[in-house]
Amino acid sequence: MIFKVCGMRDPENIRRIDLSGADWMGFVFYPPSPRRVESLPAFMPEYARRVGVFVDEPVENIQVRAKEFGLNYLQLHGSESPDDCLRLQDRGLRVIKAFRIGTAGDLEATAAYEAACSYFLFDTKTPAYGGSGKTFDWTVLDAYRGQTPFLLSGGIGPEHVRALKAFRHDRLVGYDLNSRFEQAPGIKDVEKITRFIQDMKCKK
Length: 204
Ligand SMILES: O=C(O)c1ccccc1N[C@@H]1O[C@H](COP(=O)(O)O)[C@@H](O)[C@H]1O
What we know:
Protein name: N-(5'-phosphoribosyl)anthranilate isomerase
CATH architecture: Alpha-Beta Barrel
Largest sheet: 8 strands, parallel, barrel
Number of strands: 10
GO molecular function, one term: isomerase activity
Oligomer: single chain
Domain N-(5'phosphoribosyl) anthranilate isomerase (PRAI): 4-198
Pfam families: PRAI
CATH superfamily: Aldolase class I
CATH topology: TIM Barrel
Number of domains: 1
Low-confidence stretches: none
CATH class: Alpha Beta
Distance between the termini: 16 Å
Number of helices: 5
Radius of gyration: 16 Å
Bound molecules: ligand LGQLAAA5
Strand order of the largest sheet: 1-2-3-4-5-6-7-8
Shape: globular
Order of helices and strands: EHEEHEHEEEHEEEH
InterPro entries: Aldolase_TIM, PRAI_dom, RibuloseP-bd_barrel, TrpF_fam
Structural class: alpha/beta
Helix content: 10-25%
């Protein structure tokens, strides 16, 4: 499973999370976010893959950030179209399209993105674009029959280990950890993240 830790910007926190077992690390480029990153941190992950999180950002701006931060993936949380995703893919950038899920009907939109993305990310449907700290009813995802692998997101916290282990789906490939693991916006609790990843990997 992929463990993605999102909303990073502090160099020392990045260094420690890079050693925590996290596979991917997210950088939020959405200006209104309390965990937005404005400039390249003095330390960038050496082990974790780098994911840029964007909301309706022009393709040209995304390309600039992708180069500056050495991004491996782009996570798109706005109303980016399948064509937008394909344009980024054609420029050699791998795309994770986020969908806000409340009911099974919200999964219908994924079909048009099947050929345009490497991964989907299923987040909670709220008025915010992301980072709400709220979970959704994961059993809604039983209705997802697409081919594209997905990460589960939205309010995942340390208390969810047992429920996450019980939730199974053929296309589930990872978990996104964000606001529920924070000491302050943009600062993750390294012990909580490390323990969560170890507990999730533990067979029991
Ligand atoms: O974290 C943010 O502030 C954010 C802002 C705008 C778009 C996405 C954002 N983060 C992503 O939101 C989900 C859910 O986060 P949470 O666990 O509910 O706090 C996660 O995928 C983040 O990558």
